[in-house]
Specification:
Number of strands: 13
Largest sheet: 8 strands, mixed
Structural class: alpha/beta
Bound molecules: adenosine-5'-diphosphate, magnesium ion
CATH topology of the largest domain: Rossmann fold
Shape: elongated
Number of domains: 2
């Protein structure tokens, strides 16, 4: 499936617009403290080509009037920066050039270091704050919900987003097996529930099994256990504070922890095989899930043995259709070998996951549209 989001080359750098050399020296020092380089434009004419794509634009007070006259397009994440005690004239135009903040140096130095140092991907996505939460639920057993949840999380992490994958299905067989992570050391639900949810959020995230930007909370091979709501609440809290994206794989029978995860979700996807009985089962799942999340949408997975069309499933369930998945027999084989879904970034599931993450965060993998 082609990506609807235009492909951008890798992460961009913050853009600084100033010809005040003293101010520039200060800003370069603050950027270095934030661990980033910046692009510099002396005036709006030099800034124009990079204005829209930069994750953050810092306009020096010396160029504020010039930016206004140049009629640069409005965009989010513009900061006007100058020195305390400077003539106030630059500040009047802050709103006119669309600046969200006016930063006065030296007082605002730590704040600017933080802004400049935010992950370019996360800030391009406008998600420097709490993480986005995505929930996935199957319309019937074996729909492929867990594989989709795994694919979304692997894809987000490949894009450089700090991702938490939460396995909220006590009877699902374990997402660690979907990712091939069963040998990885780290905290799993049974140990976390023993702690009664009394774990501070950063410590929780640090204790989880991880690979690169992906951390996961899943099950061990012990006896099934009912999750306390507190453990799920602590996990969602940790994910929202410390990650860019949280993906939750929900059980079809919504227990209390699943309900609070669904309530926390910005977006929930119901995955339904293109079959009549699956659609009937999904109608029940949707009736319950819809009570807890206003933003439910549908993904239909082929094959369609009775030629049921995705649009017909969407109409029957009264849900917006966000995507379809062609049969992908190679995926079953690689899952059996313990290879994580979408790890190679190819195939229908990987394309769909890239599009969903792009739509949610604005983050696009370089070259993703070429696949
Ligand atoms: N996109 C897909 N293409 C082909 N087969 C899939 C796909 N997603 C899942 N499957 C197959 O369906 C099985 C069940 O998937 P799973 O994600 O565990 O379903 P659910 O979580 O909805 O019960 C998997 O073991 C795999 O063989
Ligand atoms: Mg499952």
């Amino acid at each position: 499936m082609p990506s609807r989001t235009p492909v951008r080359p890798g992460p961009r750098l913050p853009l600084v617009v100033t010809s005040d050399n003293e101010l520039l020296d200060d800003l370069l020092r603050l950027a270095a403290a934030g661990g980033t380089e910046v692009e510099v434009a002396a005036d709006p004419a030099a800034a124009r080509s990079r204005w829209a794509a930069a994750p953050l634009v810092v306009v020096g007070a010396d160029q504020a009037q010039a930016c206004l006259r140049a009629r640069l397009p409005r965009r989010p994440r513009v900061v006007l920066v100058g020195r305390s005690g400077q003539t106030e004239s630059g500040w009047d135009v802050a709103e006119l050039i669309g600046a969200e903040h006016v930063a006065l140096l030296p007082a605002a130095e730590p704040w600017l270091v933080d802004r400049l140092g935010e992950s370019p991907l996360a800030s391009a996505a406008g998600i420097g704050g709490p993480a986005r939460v995505i929930a996935v639920i199957g319309g019937r057993g074996g729909a492929g919900a867990s594989v989709l949840a795994g694919g979304l999380a692997v894809t987000a992490a490949r894009l450089g987003l700090r991702t938490l994958l939460v396995d909220a299905d006590p009877l699902g067989g374990g997402l660690d097996l979907v990712l091939g992570w069963e040998q990885l050391e780290g905290l799993r639900w049974p140990a976390l529930t023993e702690a009664d949810g009394r774990v501070d959020p950063p410590a929780l995230v640090r204790a989880l099994p991880s690979r690169g930007d992906l951390v996961m909370l899943s099950w061990d091979r012990g006896d099934p256990l009912a999750l306390p709501v507190e453990a799920m609440a602590a996990t969602l809290d940790a994910g929202r504070r410390g990650r860019d994206i949280v993906v939750v794989d929900l059980p079809r029978h919504l227990d209390d922890p699943a309900v609070i995860a669904l309530q926390a979700a910005d977006q929930a996807f119901v995955l339904v095989p293109a079959e009549l009985r699956a659609t009937a089962a999904a109608a029940r799942v949707v009736a319950v899930a819809g009570l807890h999340c206003a933003n439910l949408s549908l993904i239909v997975r082929g094959p369609a043995p009775g030629r049921l069309k995705p649009r017909e499933v969407a109409r029957a369930l009264d849900l917006p259709l966000v995507g379809t998945l062609r049969p992908e027999p190679g995926l079953c084989r690689s899952l059996e070998r313990g290879e994580a879904p979408t790890a190679d970034g190819r195939g229908p599931l990987a394309s769909l996951c890239q599009r969903i993450i792009a739509d949610l965060t604005g983050t696009v993998e370089a070259g993703a549209g070429a696949r």
